[in-house]
Amino acid sequence: MYSIKLGCEKMYCGENAVQALKTLGGKRAFIVMSGDILIEVGSYKRVADVLAEAGFTCEAYTEVEPEPSFQTILKGAERMNEFEPDWVIGFGGGSAMDAAKAMWVFYENPDYTTLEETMPPNTIRHLREKARVCCIPTSAGTGSEATRAALIKDTVHKKKYSVRDMNGRLVPDVAILDPSFTVSMPKSLTAASGMDALTHAIESYVTPTANPFSRAMSLASFLYGYQNLALCYERGDDLEARANMLAASCMGGIAFSNSGLGIVHGIAHSFGAEYGVPHGLANAVVLPYGLEFNSQLREVKKQYDELSSFVGQPSLVEAVTELNRRIHIPICMKEVVKDEQLFIEELEKLTDKAMSDVATPFNPISPTREEMQSLILKVYYGE
Fold first, then answer.
1. pLDDT greater than 90 at residue 162
2. Class of 8-179 per CATH?
3. How far apart are CA 72 and CA 65, in angstroms?
4. Angle (nearest 5°) at CA 66 between 69 and 222
5. CA–CA separation, 278 vs 276, rounded Å?
6. 300 φ, ψ (degrees, to nearest 5)
7. CB neighbour list of residue 184: distance below 8 Å, 6 or more residues apart
8. In this model, does residue 150 exceed pLDDT 90?
9. For residues 111-117, average pLDDT
10. Where is the chain membrane-spanning (predicted)?
11. Could you tell me the CATH superfamily of domain 185-379?
12. Phi-psi category of 167—alpha, beta or left, where left has phi over 0 and alpha has psi -120 to 50?
């Protein structure tokens, strides 16, 4: 038996979808963002103006890092306790949305003091007693607006933790997928976040815990993502392509929330935690190597071939490698983490982290420690 939750209670999609904020119902909105950029480009004002028309009082919280830390989550939850919102709005990329969801957990459960209390086998005790959650993505990658988890970094132990509820209660109540918020993304972020979405689609398609519903979402996510990412990269103001990438990202989030991920995420999380490599970029670099590793299994290779056939490519590894080249993704991690000596010194630690990562157990092949370390070396050197 398996259970599924296909995204939010309500998703509003397309140009001017931001107007749907008027339908939320409520009085006080706490808006979580990563830095001031959305204020500077006028996007925050658009959101705040719509909420003001609906009678909301808003407070902005902008102190979220690119890799949100537990310390930031606790600070944000403290501000929420002072402001007492009835809606928490994550506005931005995956970092802002994940931070908003995690802050909400600690706002609803003020007695919590550790990340471990918010992770299985523990069950988050209180949710939706003080506030509900809306997410407005400004990048197309994480799908956090539709996922049951929030990725938070422990800066002391340099490890990422997944705040999550296995029953889907951490999935936001509302998502606003308005492509106009994504057109200001720089090309590098468009590329990295888009490859994050494609990684979600591919890994969730082949995980042993996939089911007919998750695979349908995985396939649609892959098709829309593969067909539109390069267009978004090359023509950033193409709203149709941007809307399709938002859909791909959201469906990828729904897919892996109802199945799992795999070794690509396990290794990417480790490079992100240890060296601060942005999550989407890390996935983009690791993905071709993860595909080659998993292709050892005949059934997985068959599933990869299914995906590549839908986009007219001879193999999935070639399709991903060519797309990476077109959108200027580095070939190997050495181009990103340039201190080779430091990498060599921390190889054992990286291997340990990848082996124990929350995503790794869902990989179709369970790697030995030696296989994991060998794969990490290939990812770094490109050989």
1. no
2. alpha beta
3. 8
4. 115
5. 6
6. -70, -45
7. 41, 43, 138
8. no
9. 89
10. none
11. Dehydroquinate synthase-like - alpha domain (1.20.1090.10)
12. alpha
